[in-house]
Amino acid sequence: MGAASGRQTIHPALARFLAWDDGTCRLLFIRAAAGTGRESFARSWIGNKVGEVLDWSGGDIDEATEVDLLVQRLRADATLHVAVILAPTASLWDLSSRTPCLVAKHRDLLLDASETAQLVGPGTAAERDEARLIHELSGGWLAATRALAADPQARPRAQQIIRSGLVIWLASRDPDGALSEAAFLPAYDRRTVEAFYGEFSPVVHTLDELVEAGLVQADGRGGWMMPAMVRKVLVERVGQRGRESTVVLEQAAVNAMAATRGVGAAVESAVARRSWQALLNMLLENWVDILMRNPKQLGVIAAKIPRFIANQTEYMRIGLRMLGQADRDGLALQLPGFEPDYATNQTAQRLHRDTVRLYAKPNTHALTVGILEMLHLRQSGFYPEAAAAAHRLREALHRALDAQRLNPALVSMVDLQAGITLQLAGRDAEARQAYEQGFHWAQVSGKAFLLADVAGKMALLDVLEGDSGSAMRWLAKHDASIGEVGWGKVMVERTAAMARAFMALARLDYAGFDVEMGALPSVVDNDEFWPVHVQLLALQKLNAGIFDAARDLISSLRQERRYAAAAPLARRLFDDTLLLAEILERGGVRPGTGIENRDPLLVALGHLLGGNPDAALAALQEVPLTGGMRRRGNLVLYLDIAARNPRGPTPATLQRVKQQHRDSGVLYELAILGMVPGWSEVGRHLELDPEELQRLGYALDLAPTPLPRRPVLTVREQEVLRQLRAGMTRRQIAEADYRSENTVKSQMRSLYRKLEASDVEQALANARAWGL
């Protein structure tokens, strides 16, 4: 025991501590680490009063018993003041419950920014800068702050002061090292700290715990910071567990920054700490969200990654190449410009090998590489291979969803891109499944970009299959989200705009069709659904009766985009449009016209207009009827009825058509039925409103004049046709039937005329086309 000296340096933090003290307490407990100036704080608190400082920091005494003795002494001497320096393990609750006292904790002794500034100097600009630097380094540890203020070169000494005190302090205050792990966070606020611990720890520690432990403190600018020298000690401590633990914490820090402060802040912190693997993992987890906001940002981020890291993967190179094709309107992938040869395409082969390996244990990385494989294959013109890759990717996605939690936006993007791939490859049923799942996960993610894009794709798929009702519902979902889309809005609107144009045609609203076409580019661009755009442009020309212009458009683009035009979707649309052009211009399908692999509905229509109902019925047998295929609404039923009733409608058939139209309300189906000979007045029997009747009448006015009906052969002409088909010559026919060659010649001349043929080969071919 002894009186405190009257001449001493006051601890800079004491005034702040005493701001709320009424001066009645004569006992002070101090629990703080060595190096914080705890002895100075104790002596400063006693000041010129009678008192003493007791150091129990060694922890080798019975604190409860000693406190009881202190209480007796304080009661016996009303002038006595005692300051006790406690061990880090001391229970403040237990000790302070025994008698009124003051408690100074570790954080109370750490100087704040203003106290550090007062200690450093009178306040010149240079001194203010120096004080701020010292505070960011030492965090107000008094001994370290004084060392740095006296000598800027004393960093090693200051670091050692903090290390010595902090190691002992943490051994008891953070025995399992959980709070020390926060050193891997580059910035601090309540949300970021909780997000960080939520990544890997069953116990979500808080900012208050870090502040209470003295590891994080106010930065003097309204935020929080961890002093650099404190951080170094903590990182060293955690690093003793091994590299594996460090990798987990680096990743958690980057993810927490991305979740609470944005991807930009996460990137900057990862670059500053050279946490390259954590940065790459964060990009794999968040690239979809970044892409939907601004794909250019992905390029900026990738540029920060050292080349030796980026070059380790083929995926980065492919991804950057694709990002280079982005502009403010969207991402228009490059169309294939070279003849596809899958066997010799090394990138395609490497991607296939990598996905096979990665799909064994599918995760975010595997799914991202799978998307890149599909995109590369589409860009290179490997449409069947891309569809196969899409199928494998969706199988991997389903396994991944069973095993782990995935970013819903990534899941939606996988299904969206798989749907596009499958639709381009002509696998519409699978594309529909992918789109539907993609929309579900888009709803889970809440991302307007995905909701609008998938809904637009579904609307286009439906309208191409003839399901106008479903297309309308998907367009409504598209419209509900498109207003919230930022980057890529023009791209996302494209398929919906094309679907609306088809819907206008379905209503026979030619003026509305022209308006919808005005929303599309006047020149075909590189959007992957460019074949649909071409078909619409061709239909616009067909509606105007400019048949050669429609054919020339398709022919020129097929030549110009030779490999992209080989996509199954493009081939189907172009072939069907060319066949429709012939039907509209010539009034049917002429005998001998090559119609293999064309839309069987158009083939059936061509035969009906050409007067060959039997061939029409045969073509209708080729129309897929299963759900999700190209149903084309009521057309199968209408054309089947017309083929079975070539003389025109009966009351029963009109009733069937009336019922079907009442359910669908699609006018263009009636217009096509009305083109068939004998069915031109069908609209007048269906109770259409005046506007619908006017539109239908206008469409039928544009309809072509049907080709002559199928020729009717005499019995003799039929016999000659069978004999010609058997390979018999004119002389052999005459001898077999006991007729003169002149008679057979006359019969053959009549046969050729009816079949519009000039020789035997053409006659036989035309007879087959007529179904004779």
From TrEMBL:
Source organism superkingdom: Bacteria
PANTHER family (alphabetical): DNA-BINDING TRANSCRIPTIONAL ACTIVATOR DEVR_DOSR
Domain HTH luxR-type, residue spans: 706-771
Keywords linked to the UniProt accession: DNA-binding, Transcription, Transcription regulation
Protein name: DNA-binding CsgD family transcriptional regulator
GO molecular function: DNA binding
PROSITE patterns for the chain: HTH_LUXR_2
SMART domains: HTH_LUXR
Alphabetized InterPro entries for the sequence: Sig_transdc_resp-reg_C-effctor, Tscrpt_reg_LuxR_C, WH-like_DNA-bd_sf
